[in-house]
User: Fold this.
Amino acid sequence: MNGLVRTALRASTLKGLTQSTVVVGGTARRDFARTMWNMCSRQNELAPLTSYKIQNPSDFCSCGCSRKAHTKAEKELGLFLAEEIVAEKKAQKMKTIPTELDGFKISLDGAEVTLTKKHGDETITINFNVNHTVDSDSEPDIDTPEDKAEFGEMKSKPSFEVDIERGNQTLGFTCSFNNEPQASGADDGYNDIFGIDEITLYEGEHNDKIYAVAGDVIDGYLYDLLMNYLEEKGVSNEFAEKLIELSTTYEHTAYISLLEGLSKFTSGK
Assistant:
C-alpha cells in the first residue's frame, strides 16, 4: 500500500482545502474543485422528481442534504476523503482478491483470512488477521515526497497460524515474518523471511491447557527440520512472499472500504 497517500499533510487539508494542491508521491493531486454543496446538489439533479417528499426546509442543511447542519470539521473531512479515496484506488495494484493461492483456497471474513488445502490425508489451514499488520514503523526518517516514493510501498506482514490436521490430531505452528535476515530460531546461514514462534500438538479442539513451546528455545537442528517440514507442506519462503502480497492487497482494500464508510457516515448519507 502506498503509505504516502495515508500521510498527506493535515495542514494542507485544514487551511485552503478547496484551493490548494497537495503533492503526493511526486505527483500533484488535483485541486478540490467541487464543494460539498456542488456534490450534494448534483446528486439531487440526477434523482427522479418522484423520489422527493415534501418536507420542511428546516430539515435540510445549506448543501441540500437531509442533515440539518454540517460542521466545519465534517465539511473538511468530507472534502479530504473524496480526494483520498480516489488516490488510494489509483494506487491499488490489484482490484480483486484472488480465490486461490498455490493450491490453497482463500476465504475472507472481515479482517480474517483463511487458506485451506488438502494434502493426502491431511488438511492444512493457514489463518491470519490483517489488522495492525502494515510495517509503518520500519519506514526511515524521510522528509520529502520524492524520498518517500523512492523508499517504496508499505507491506502488510501478519503473524499467521499453520494447522496441519490428520484425523483427530493437529500439529500447530505460529509463525511471523522476520524483520532482519537470518532472524530465525536456528543459528544458520539461511535467509528465511519468516520464522516459527511456537509449536503445539493436540487432539480435538485447542484450549489454553495444551502445552506449546517457543521456536527460539528448541534445538537448532530440530528447528531446521520443522522449517523443511513446512516447506514440504507448501509453506515455503516463496509462498510466504505471496502471502505478504495477498495480505497487503486485502488490507489496502479494507482500508479503502473504511474510508468510503467514513465518508458516508460523516456526510449523513
Summary: Helices lie at 3-6, 10-14, 36-46, 72-91, 145-151, 220-232, 237-267.
